Every structure is written in C-alpha cells, then in structure tokens.
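Researcher: We're teaching a course module on how sequence relates to structure. For the next exercise, students receive a sequence and then see the predicted structure as tokens, so they can try to spot secondary structure elements on their own. Here is the exercise chain.
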Amino acid sequence: MEERKAGLHDEDPRSSLGEGDDMPLDEHVTDTVQTGDGDLAITHLGHASLLFTHGGKRIYIDPYSRFADYANLPDADIVLITHAHYDHLDPRAIAKIRRDTADIVHPERCAKRIKGGIVMRNGDVQVIHGFRIEAIPSYSLGPRWKMGSLHPSGHGNGYVIEFANLRVLVAGDTHAIPELKGQVGIDVAFLPLRAPFAMSPQMLADVALAMKPKILYPYHRSEAETRRLIDLLKDHPEIDLRIRPRR
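Model: And here is the predicted structure for the students to work with:
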C-alpha cells in the first residue's frame, strides 16, 4: 500500500495522475526461474505489481497505472487482486490488459468495482487456466484504531500459485501474521516491506526464517528498510534474497 495520510483509500485521490511510465515489457526487469515444466518469467512492474509468464499464459498481480503503461503490455489470462486500495485495485490498468477470456480474481470487497470477476475468500482454492491458486489471509496486526484498520482480517488475499512443481507466494499488504509464518513448501516468496502499512524489516526477516523460501523478493519496499533487511538476513545464505527496482 502506498503511503498516504489517514483513512482507507479505495479510490485514487490524485485525479491528475498520469497513465504511468511509458515502458514496454522488455524495459522492465525480468527474472527466470526453472520449474518442472519450463521456465517461469517474473517481471517486476513496480510498486506491488508483477507479471508471471509460464507456458504461454500470463498472470498479473495488482496492476497499477502509476508505474507502468498497461496499454503497452501483453493481455492477461489471469489478474489477481489482493485488496481494494487504489494502488492495488486499478480499474484503468485492468481494462487495458483484460481480454474476453481473462479471469479477474479478487476478494469479496472488490466485487462492486470489478464486473464478472471470480471472488476468492481466504482458504479458497481454485484451478484457473490450469494453475492451482490458493487465497491465503493477508491483514494487519494491532488494534483497529491503529494500523489494523487499514487491512482488516478477511478483507484481503495473498495468493499461492503453482507453476508445475514451483510454488510462488505473493503476500499482499500484510504484517507477520501466523498464517503466513505457517506456510510450507514455498519456493519463491514476495513479502511486502513498508512499515507500518506492511512489514518492518524485522517482521519480514521473522517470516522469511519461519517460511524458508528458496528465493525471497521484498517488494512494495523502501530503500532504508531494504538495507536493514539485507543486514538481518546476511547470515542466512539458504535464502536467496533478491532486490529488484522499486519503480
């Protein structure tokens, strides 16, 4: 969640905001990870936005117009939305990559702003376009009158996506919740580093050491917190910590 003052923000308050940086796909950073059935390409689109490409299918996570021009990006087969805040649910971005056969997956609270989507609640599992997708809890800790009110339990999803034998977890905006620490068999994890809206460096390190992903991407992050996280995990080479551009 992008930093802003006070209150839930389901709508983008910046009416003058442009359509984002005019960057074609090949100008975004893309990593390749092997699976048991071909490579998975992971494209980092900025903020909390990602694109997974596997077997000719494309899965977008939280597309957001501020950091990419989705008119220049390939059509989606699946779009996964983690929660209703404007920097995660951006109807303009979705419209530019949504084709007739695309499935938009989202929590129930997003249903009024997404027509014809698939609602998934925490704990739901579906196979969509051949991919097994599990919705997992994603929420803030603490009293509701503090940061807990921004991401209440049950309002958002994280997702575990299976690409052949490779399990990829995208946490969404969450703190170091027990349901996240209890995840097992995760090969690639995207965990949010943006206290107090998401995890602090210590929270993220605690989750990573409990979960033990083979590859860890801190995303939705700040530079100062990233430096602290690198220091916290420097004695744990079993976790491949990968830092990618924030834009």
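Model: If you want an answer key for the exercise: The two ends are 14 Å apart (CA to CA). The longest strand covers residues 38-46.
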